[in-house]
Amino acid sequence: MLKGKTALVTGSTSGIGLGIALTLARQGVNIVLNGFGDAEGPKAEVAALGVKVGYHGADMSKAGEIEAMMAYIEAEFGGCDILVNNAGIQHVAAVEEFPVERWDAIIAINLTSAFHTTRLALPGMKARGWGRIINVASTHGLVASAQKSAYVAAKHGIVGFTKSVALETATTGVTVNAICPGWVLTPLVQKQVDARAGADGISIDEAKKRLLAEKQPSLQFTTPEELGELAVFMCSDAAANVRGQAWAMDGGWTAQ
Ligand code: NAD
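A: This is the predicted complex of the input protein with nicotinamide-adenine-dinucleotide.
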């Protein structure tokens, strides 16, 4: 059903974005990757699934580079049918010590970038009568943790943005939803595991256990593949009337 569509997954050279890109590619979706670091490895993984793959290295904190990426997709793929706003960064510090530059970067990458990709992708989706916008928020879009003020503000912001755009598109073939993962063991979380192991003088394994025990009742990490399958469902016809939702996949974190 999704064969031949084109998806842009921002921040897809690693972690959750790469997991979602690979899961969509298994459905026959052509993929445009984005993100920093090695792009050749992820490109080869996607290409091995038999779909067309592209890459654009736009820095998601820069509106001009995002505009160039959207123009590249229009020229090379004929437009973006599925937009997964996933690029994100984290910084952990108390608010009075929070570096101003980190605050600005988190708001730009985790929130404002989705405004730019959405405003640029939406006209084409509406013209074609079909589109899916999936914003990778977080449990931190629904509840807070200490030391993460910028991240929590950006993630609550993107949940609000999701609802607003879902209302603006409610009578169209475009749906807009958010996915709210709990802990997923990606490089972004590994840094927090390492910091905890160092601070508490414990092993990496023990740090993982403590991290999960504090928030995630299942005591299991959510996986990028599980999140990819949720994205595939959101792209399906069965989800045509799922609009403006912030769907948690968090091992029970936000049920508490
Ligand atoms: P990750 O660090 O593995 O991947 C982040 C991706 O974003 C990478 O591809 C990186 O290159 C890219 N990126 C970072 N800054 C960028 C920029 N300025 N421009 C373009 N690309 C940039 O992290 P992840 O855990 O896979 O996180 C992906 C998303 O999922 C983020 O929005 C994050 O907030 C969210 N999330 C993660 C978890 C978790 O537990 N890992 C939980 C909830 C939500």
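Strands lie at 6-9, 30-34, 53-56, 82-85, 131-136, 174-181, 246-249. Residues 185-221 form one domain.
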